[in-house]
Write a structure and sequence with these properties.
- The chain is α/β, with parallel strands linked by helices.
- The chain folds into 2 domains: 79 residues, Chitobiase, domain 2 (2-Layer Sandwich); 50 residues, no CATH class.
- Helix content is 19%, strand content 35%.
- It is built from 2 helices and 9 strands.
- Strands 1-3-2-6 form a 4-stranded mixed sheet, covered by helices on one side. A 3-stranded mixed sheet has the order 7-8-9, with no helix packed on it.
- A hairpin with an 8-residue loop joins strand 8 and strand 9.
- The chain is extended, with a radius of gyration of 20 Å.
- The termini are far apart.
Amino acid sequence: MLLLLDLSVEEDFSYLDPTSTDEGYSLRLDPPSGGLQRASAAARTWYGLHHAMETLSQLISWNAAEGSFQVHSEAAVDDDRPAYPHRGISVDTSRNFMPVSVLKELIDGLGQVCQKRLDFFKLQIMANIKRAMILFPLRT
């Protein structure tokens, strides 16, 4: 199957401002016709278009029986945007024990995956004390 993409972005490139950058997008997939699948993605910023392409990549897989890629949604419309203006991770080691080596691997992995946008890392180390947590702001 051949996938034809129509991409559009309203704004020129701008730097990511976590408080005001619009990361929303619209993704539309038309039903396949004659071995051709059409998809269109529209966003206000390049960051929104990036999210649309990530969503599209999750809808495509390899079909070994046919020896080609397939799109899992015959006709889809998705208008999406992040629910919160910040991204982070919270780890509660007081209720779920994690060895230090696992925490180090987690932090290294976050550095690889979230290079562009990770605002905080919260580590809860004790359950009964309200202030027994460490919050690492990753953006200033």
